[in-house]
Amino acid sequence: MTVEKSVQRKDFDQVMVPCYNPMEMIPVRGVGARVWDQQGNEYIDFAGGIAVSCLGHCHPVMVKALQDQGSKIWHLSNVMTNEPALRLASKLTKVSFADKVFFANSGAEANEAALKLARRYAADVYGEEKSEIIAFKQGFHGRTFFTVTVGGQASYSDGFGPKPGDVTHLPYNDIDALQAHISDRTCAVMMEPLQGEGGIIPPTPEFVQAVRELCDKHNALLIFDEVQTGNGRTGDFYAYQGLGITPDILSTAKSLGGGFPIGAMLTTEKLAEHMKVGTHGSTYGGNPLACAVAEAVVDVVSDPQVLAGVKEREAWFREGLEALNNKYHLFSEIRGKGLLLGAALNADWQGRARDVLVAAGQQGLMVLVAGANVVRFTPSLVITKEEVDAGLARLDKALESLVS
User: Fold this and answer.
1) Would the annotation count 398 as a binding residue?
2) Which residues carry this modification: N6-(pyridoxal phosphate)lysine (predicted)?
């Protein structure tokens, strides 16, 4: 009998491509909003795998869905369809504006499909010259070469050679800049309805309305990247539902599978008909296992009580973070919506978001950053009051260690 040697953090440096710099601890087990590492140390999870673990770790509904489907069928090519994919697609159309769904494996792939659809529709209906994509500075749309180019952070796309062309970046929340630039050559405007990686920046109501109106004026499609904001994260099933406008195309991933990899592009019947057989595809897109788990997630998250609970939990976090700020005076504001929140550091704490993350980890709390100056919180949508209070108490100790 072969005895497997235990893996350690140092093994990462030996066998993994070094595009990540993971923490020293290795989590091995999770329940709800708590995880335990190899040494048995407990952590409260305010990170949620970067807005992924919307029902926490090992939620019984998800576990049952995976086990049930795991004993039926795991994979089919898209030469045929499968029951979980059809059920999930139907449910997504019921909770959104969409008529049609394309399944992928990640947010980047969902965004790739969205961008390809926008370009194909414009070319089919208006001609090849209508190809410009407008996106926004500090936006983030994935790591494929197309999506990272559309994303508004050049540091992520520089250094890989010539980039896909006809992509323009404008300031977020700047109506005048958009109005001055958009034209009949613009095929699509792509935006996050609440910027995540860029620092948890909410749009003004006026900006969102103007984007929709300008897209209509110039026959451009509006693409909402709801990879991070979707599936209940803001307290609406999709964030657009709380903004009073409707996009033409929407991408969703992260929380959609609650931790099981899956992404989807949602759109209307009018647009979908331009993606004819052979124009796009995915080997694993619509995988039965992934769709079965996501179906269970959608069933839970779309419950009105769960969505109302997100707004209740937002209040718990805001109240707790304000209390800590009154004590330590480090945040200039708490921004965001629902359980996609960012605590922006004030002038005295500039550049220290990672210090807070590390100190929190030392106290048994997992948080995130969104740039150098924002501490980000994206916990489970069903995190308990006890877990929130315990996590905030650990954050208190972490901040105390930084000021003492």
Assistant:
1) no
2) 254
Dist. CA 316–CA 323, nearest whole Å = 11
State the DSSP code for 32: B
Give the end-to-end CA distance of the chain in Å, rounded to a whole number.
52
| For the chain, percent of residues with pLDDT exceeding 70 | 99
**Is 234 known as a binding-site position?**
no
Report the SS3 class of residue 298. helix
Last-in-domain residue among 301, 317, 351: 301
Name the pairing type of β-strands 374-377 and 340-345: antiparallel
Summarised one tens digit per residue, pLDDT across range 152-182 is 999 999 999 999 999 999 999 999 999 999 9
How far apart, in whole angstroms, are the C-alpha atoms of residue 387 and residue 393? 10
64 located within any domain:
no
Structural domain containing residue 218: 73-301
pTM over 0.85, yes/no: yes
Is 63 flagged in the annotation as binding? no
Domain stop point among 281, 301, 321: 301
Q: Do residue 227 and residue 343 come from a single domain?
A: no
